[in-house]
Each structure stands twice: as C-alpha cells, then as structure tokens.
Amino acid sequence: MTGRDAILVLNDGATFEGEAVGADAAVTTGEVVFNTALSGYQEIVTDPSYAGQVITFTYPHIGNYGVNDADDESRRPFCSGVIVRDLARRPSNWRAERSLDDLLHAHGVPGIAGIDTRRLTRHLRDEGALPGAFGTDEAAVRAAATTARSTDGIDLVETVTTRAPYVVGDDDAPFTVVAYDFGIKRTILRHLVAAGCRVEVVPASTPAADVLARQPDGVFLSNGPGDPAPLTAAAAAVGQLVGELPLFGICMGHHVLGLALGGHTYKLRFGHHGANHPVRHEASGRVEITSQNHNYAVDADSLAGRVALTHVNLNDGVVEGLRVLGAPAFSVQYHPEAGPGPHDARYLFDEFVALMNGTAA
Question: What is the predicted pLDDT for the residue at 163?
C-alpha cells in the first residue's frame, strides 16, 4: 500500500478521509454502493456487473486470504474502485498467489482504505446509492464529486461484453446453449457446462436471427452492469426469441426479459448487493438465501397477465423471479450460481435443462 492520504467525497458533500491503496489515482469517480458479503471479495471485484461503480465492503477486514487466478469472474475488474476499512497487507491462505492490493495494481483499479465503512454504509442506506469521487488530490476530488454520474441511462453492458463469440464446454455435450454476454460471470459458465451444456457465448448486440441460425437447444441471458433501460436492441432481440426456444435469464438477463415482454424497470434506493438476501419461492413457500448484485428491478405491475411471479425478496418485496405465461422462459434477479454466496438456488440450472429436454413440470 502507498500510505498516502486520500479522500472520498460523495455527490451530496459527505466526506471521508482514508489512505490510498491499489493503483495510483489522483481522482476516480463512480457510483458508490455497498456489498454485505463476508467473503468472496475477489469474485465481487472481478464481477463485470460492477462496471461504473465503486464497491464499499461492509465487512471490516478485506484481503485476508489473498487472491488467485482461479477465482476471477472475468478477464479483468470493471469496477471503478474499491473502499475498505482495513486491507490486509500479508494474506495468509494456501491458495493465495498474491494480495488483493497486487490485483488492484495489476489492473489499474484504485482504492481507498481506512474509511469508516459503517458510517458510509448507513449514509448510503439513508440517502441511496450516490455518485462520488476519491483520490489523493483533494481539490480535484471535491470538484469531480460535484459532477460524478450515477449509472442511470448509461449502456454499461457495451463496455464489458465480449467482442467476438467463443465456446465453453465439450462439443459432444447433450445440449447447446447460446449465452448472451451482458457481463457474464465465469461461475455461470461453469454451472452451465456442469449441467451438460456446450455454451456459445455471443456479444450483447447479437440479433435474434444469428442466434436461431446457430440452432441451439436453449438461450441464456447473463448478468451485467448498470441500467437495463438503454438495452433496447437486446430487448428487441430477446422478444423475438421468447417462445422460439427455452430461455433462462439471470440478473440483467431477468431485466432484459422483462423489457422484451413490454415491461418496465426502475432503480432501487441502494440496490441489492450481498450474499444473504432471503427470497421466497412462491410455489413451495421455501425460503432461499441468495447472492445478489443489482441496482434495478422489474416492475411487476407492468407485466400483469404476461408472467407469473415465482420469487419475491423478503426484505423489501421486490420481484426476484418470473415465468413467462405460454412460453418456456423464466428468469431470476438474483445469482443462483453464487460466486460468492450460498447455493440454495442451484436447482434453477436443472430447471433450464428440464425445459430443453422437455421434462419440465
């Protein structure tokens, strides 16, 4: 760590003093959010869904067990920065290959440590996710904080999606799935492969006709960052695929499916970011503890008569899952693949396979 003084200033003027860590940066801007997971910091930092955001870790000690290549969720971190209370200088774990600070340096991600993250989290919970700035140049940080942007109305998916199709899994797998990459996590790909799928990952801008030309058994809509509303082309393509093939969406994929059906999305006050959100499975009444990472949600009323509500968040009543009426398509707002988080909802990958092989209930 550099040991240099740094400052964090939110768009509303709230100020926090700390110490610069990670890559050197006089000033960095982004939408500041908080994540309540107790572990899995590497997976969180490398999740493309955090593009445009600065991640505040509520757990006080971060970096304790280091990082390694196997736990990266994407080719690089896309978050704007990280905020921690205490960043471990000497990680201790047999799997550790380097420190979290090393990872941040290697990928040009700045951070700030020594922050009172309890105070910051309470402020974000009361005021909502806020744009802000941090860095070592106080004057530049204060100026940047006044103009820092939230994720509203920005197509951040374009910044994280693959530029060319690629394949994951065995050629002789029982099923072929085309996966739209809105910011797909590697753990999702591992789960699809483990379920018997050969996955053809395609850019977010891929037309429906190109997907159908690949003759897949199903279509997967991945997670991704930011506001779903600008993804009009992706929603139009998905709208043409609904009813043609079995379809499964996660997080951004859930939002895009909602838009494709003519629904609307809206921004949550401070989003759902963590690994312990209780979700009720409506058909059984079972409660699942889930991993979540999103700032937006689907407006259930805007889809009345077109979908059945399958999952509900018990913290705030937000829609967490839906099934399309009259078509083999479903989605969830949370992350059944976890990475990090509990595995209560892993069964959803089996339900997708059941749709593809015609054995779904």
Answer: 97
- The residues, any chain, with a CB within 8 Å of residue 7's CB and separated by 6 or more, are 15, 16, 17, 18, 112, 134, 135, 136, 138, 141, 142
CA–CA gap between residue 141 and residue 324 (Å, rounded): 46
Q: Is the dihedral of CA 88, 92, 95, 98 positive or negative?
A: positive
Q: Of the candidates 106, 129, 144, which has an alpha carbon nearest to the alpha carbon of residue 56?
A: 129
**Catalytic (active-site) positions:** 251, 335, 337
> How much is the pLDDT for 359?
82
Using alpha carbons, list the distances in angstroms from residue 278 to 240, 249, 298.
33, 19, 18
pLDDT in tens, 151-203: 999 999 999 999 999 999 999 999 999 999 999 999 999 999 999 999 999 99
CATH of domain 5-147: 3.50.30.20
**pLDDT for res 203:** 98
CATH number of the 157-356 domain: 3.40.50.880
State the pLDDT at residue 84: 98
Terminal Cα-to-Cα distance of the chain (whole angstroms):
54
Distances (CA, A) of 23 to 73, 120, 139, 152, 282: 20, 22, 19, 26, 45
Domains 5-147 and 157-356 agree in fold: no
- Domain regions of the chain by residue span: 5-147, 157-356
**Structure tokens, 6:** 């740094």
Do 53 and 187 meet the contact criterion of CB atoms below 8 Å apart? no
With 80 as the cut, is the pLDDT of residue 14 above it? yes
- What single string gives the DSSP state of each residue in 190-240? HHHHHTTEEEEEEETT--HHHHHHT--SEEEE----S-STT-HHHHHHHHH
Residue 361's pLDDT is 66
What pTM was computed for the model?
Answer: 0.96
